Here is the input.
Amino acid sequence: MEGTDPVNKKLAAALSGGAVLVLALSGCSDDSNDKLNSWAKQVCDKVQPQAKKIESANAAIQKETSDNSAPADVQKTDSKAFQDMSDAYKAIGDAVDKAGAPNVDGGEKKQQDAVKELDKISTSYADLKKQVDKLDTDDQAKFAEGLKGIAGSLDKLSQSGSDALKNLEEGDVGKAMAKQESCKSASATPSGS
Here is the structure.
């Protein structure tokens, strides 16, 4: 199984890069804007379970790849993980959509851009699931080659998602989100620091 091992590691690394963007909803500040705070709470409460789902999907892929598993097992795990991620990003997009525009300058554009990006990421993960499902698990070299292509797509995907949310979380929106307990616990760093 040595043939696919470096590729699997690359895949796992690309994936964890993608998950970081959802888990990056933390920072610190304390200005008061009730409307914005209630918007942030609404989004954060919805994001938290999805962030956990993405984290679990990542963990599953990393476990499968570090165990030097057979191609068929890697395929099965990756396929489920990509489906979970697709669902999670769709749900986060829906949450941002339903929350309406945050009460800041240009809030509507920020919101719409983020929703558009999140939906696009959801679709991209669904496409990766289809790609991984089609890989030939009987031919190890071909399987490794296919995974390499998927890892490349993931790199791009994590970057675009990161940009979408970075934009939404700029300024007061990010500060309001940082104060929400659910966003703190969804973040990759332990709260209480």
